[in-house]
Specification:
Blueprint (H helix, E strand, L loop, with lengths): L1 E11 L2 E7 L22 E5 L6 H17 L1 H6 L4 H4 L8 E9 L4 E11 L5 E12 L2 E9 L2 E4 L14 E4 L7 H4 L7 H12 L1 E3 L25 H12 L3 H9 L5 E7 L7 E6 L6 E2 L5 H14 L6 E5 L7 H15 L6 E6 L2 H5 L6 E6 L5 E5 L4 H8 L6 H10 L1
Parallel strand pairs: 3-15, 3-16, 10-14, 14-15
Antiparallel strand pairs: 1-2, 1-4, 4-5, 5-6, 6-7, 7-8, 8-9, 11-12, 12-13, 16-17
């Protein structure tokens, strides 16, 4: 597995030019005023800021590239109302995205950059793609696609850039990504990890209604990318763990407040049922009778504790519907899973200081709008008020949230 160390976006919605973490090697985002070079994104990263400051747009930028990868540029644009609906008002140049992805505990990394333009006959097309392979401090191109020509360069571990063969291939498909058609190569295992990230990431904006009346007949690994497929995920878990599902669900139950055990009725093969034995009660109850908060926490726990988790898990405002005790349980679980994880990465958005308090300020990114209405992003540890609080060993508490987002 690997880790997304950074990404940058240009001209997408309110993100006229935004970079987080380690970005494209020749375009490392440096704030013009503070000259601060951001850290790479961590195994756990938190986005905070007022409503409307661009947090969801940053998540949707990632989703947009994933849609381009899996379904093509037309689909990704039309899904969001068309190219004009997502292009930044007053922007200049192409719609552009970049990702920097590193294989765990290895020197190898890849950077992928994509530019999408809009033709006069009113259709979006791929203007260019660049995939660069990085070994140590040296960045080498794997392929570059522009104006219908794709150049592919494969390098053996002992090859230098000047001695490698360069092959040009006619490539006239302007609607589908060259990255999607590029076959994984044994010399570049990190490339397979990047493709896995774009295919199998998860964004969960879970609502409890999607869990009521669960249908387990259509198993699906992980939740859907809008967090509405708890039924399919549960069907996948039941089939994956088979006779061991009791042990798995007992582990899940340990993270849920007042849940003593989770019972699985597999007598109906196509539609197994779950029942929850609560502390102080004699009869187990079906999931449809649980509170919204417990159902939500149950869904998050399944995502985080599954033995084969998604490579990137995104939780959008996970505090919704959770009381302080459930928030604390979720935060403890996040640290348990991700503090030393080499299998998955977590990005969250939140409006609650509990999640920020639990992380180092270098893991927290603050979203705000400038006077022109575009998003600007700052790492929390680079803010002067945070530096003062850190020097005084103060947490990022509700006072800082109030000062940052209500007074400003």
């Amino acid at each position: 597995m690997g880790v997304l160390e950074g990404f940058w976006v240009r001209n997408f919605k309110s993100l006229k030019q935004v970079g987080l973490g380690t970005c494209f090697p020749k375009f490392v985002y440096i704030d013009d005023e503070t000259r601060v070079l951001p850290y790479h994104l961590n195994s756990t990263t938190l986005f905070i800021g007022n409503n409307g400051t661009g947090k969801s747009s940053a998540l949707d930028a990632f989703s947009f590239v994933s849609d381009c990868y899996r379904h093509g540029v037309d689909f990704a644009c039309l899904k969001r109302g068309g190219y004009d609906a997502i292009y930044s008002h007053g922007g200049k140049g192409s719609l552009s995205f970049g990702f920097h992805y590193r294989q765990n505990e290895e020197l190898e990394a890849v950077t992928y950059a994509l530019s999408i333009a809009f033709a006069k006959n009113k259709f979006p097309f791929i203007e260019s793609e660049l995939l660069a392979y990085q070994r140590g401090k040296e960045s080498l191109p794997i392929f570059f696609l522009q104006n219908g020509m794709r150049s592919i360069r494969y390098l053996a571990p002992d090859e230098q850039i000047g001695t490698a063969e360069l092959t040009k291939i006619e490539f006239t498909d302007y609607k589908n990504l060259g990255l999607a058609s590029l076959q994984s190569h044994p010399k570049f295992p990190v490339l397979a990890s990047l493709k896995n990230l774009l295919e199998n990431w998860v964004l969960s904006s879970f609502t409890s209604g999607s869990a009521r009346g669960l249908d387990f007949s259509l198993p699906r690994q992980h939740e859907s990318q809008r967090g509405m497929n708890l039924s399919g995920l549960m069907g996948y878990v039941l089939k994956r763990y088979g006779t061991e599902n009791k042990t798995f669900f007992q582990r899940i139950a340990s993270f849920l407040p007042d849940v003593e055990t989770i019972l699985v009725d597999s007598t109906q093969i196509d539609k197994p049922r779950l029942a929850f034995k609560m502390l102080g009660t004699k009869q187990p109850i079906p999931i449809t009778h649980l509170s919204e908060g417990i159902i939500r926490l149950f869904a998050y726990t399944i995502l985080l504790e599954e033995d084969d988790p998604a490579p990137l898990i995104i939780l959008e405002e996970p505090e919704n519907g959770l009381d302080w005790s459930s928030r604390a349980n979720l935060i403890d679980q996040i640290h348990h899973v991700f503090d030393h994880s080499q299998n998955a990465q977590l990005i969250m958005t939140t409006h609650h200081h509990d999640f920020a308090d639990s992380l180092h300020p270098s893991q927290v990114w603050v979203f705000e709008k400038n006077q022109d209405g575009f998003t600007v992003v700052e790492r929390a540890s680079d803010a002067l008020v945070l530096q003062e609080m850190m020097e005084g060993n103060q947490p990022i508490d509700s006072y800082w949230f109030s000062k940052r987002f209500e007074i400003r």
